[in-house]
């Protein structure tokens, strides 16, 4: 997605149901039908766009010839030699950035970039000055090719979308050796590099793969597509597919001058190539506003790959800046990248509490018993990208923030993390978030006596080689009322999250 602009916010009333258009190409014998439509908040009379251009004679489509049948599909590539395990050097990152926001956004890149390890390029529109000291912490910086010859006719978007959609091809043309995957992201995307590798390891890089995820916003996915990988959340393209894309991308983007962004242009070309999106739920576009707690507190049982729109949402740790908060989260990533923000549930039956752990980030303690099927649903602490959309506006289930005075969760954010060599476990100290709680009439124990939750866990680097499963969580005995000890790890045989 365009890193300098948010996607347009369409007015619901301006959506016309039958906004389709035809373009009959006289140059060719065949006609092409398009149903791309553009939503406009400003002009109700201007929401129809006909973006498809005639194919040039060079890109003629083959008419099926029954006397001369199409050749059989190519056999899959030989796999007599199993490829070596995927390593960081096999991945080339292409980061779309803009000079106007560079000073702020480069801080996000520095957070996850690993000098001398990660490979890739930041693509900018204009030269920026960076000190030698700083350049050591950042990828190489390049200026994107001139795109003035391409047409761009979308009224809400920006021309930079053209430049950004060509990041994949431009990164490929650099000819880096041993690249298996190209991974694209914006300058406000933070990647968990180990999990990028874990996810991509599942797929054969010699085949065609387009891997990413949709938007959280159902409305966004209707306007763009559920079949599109959102650019800010990041997406991966296997090497042979990137080569195929590079060959046709410039002519492909000429055919869609009316599209909004860079990622919908990539999607349009992928659709022409016939390669579908492979969805991985760990890529996060985060098309939301406000507090990410609901989403980060109830992540799907899949590795966290990326976070995006970090300037748009609140800082993820209260009291810390955006960058400091992400830094703290990445400290947990260092200890156990596989398990970062993996959710597990505990019940303290004596105190009548439900506890939800988002490992390495936050522990939420709630009065009463809330079932796992509810706890695994994100609470709507965040706001929809489309301000008028309600709970129906999401592409997944959510639950409301509890309104009952007794049910407001007590939050304990990670404050420090150490590794206990002797016991070979990670000791996380989560401190109570200082906020007021309404008066509660329930007679059960109040979590307000707790100041600290300590979570013990062993690192579990192989968890994604097994079938996905939540960790189990147990409440350990504690001698102090102000401290609660939790253990999080693999479930024992027969162990379930009992209410
Ligand atoms: C891009 O190309 C156009 C014409 O081909 C030229 O007028 C323009 O100055 C170029 N822009 C840059 C930034 O080089
Ligand atoms: C761009 O648009 C103009 C006017 O609609 C058209 O004449 C021209 O051929 C287009 N250029 C490309 C490269 O599609
Ligand atoms: C919690 O916040 C209140 C009001 O903002 C403040 O008076 C109090 O000292 C804080 N307590 C702690 C432990 O920080």
Automatic annotation (TrEMBL):
It comes from the Eukaryota. The lineage of its organism: Eukaryota, Viridiplantae, Streptophyta, Embryophyta, Tracheophyta. Residues 69-80 have a biased composition (Pro residues). InterPro entries: DUF604. This is Transferring glycosyl group transferase. Residues 50-85 are annotated as: Disordered. Pfam families: DUF604. It comes from Salvia divinorum (Maria pastora).
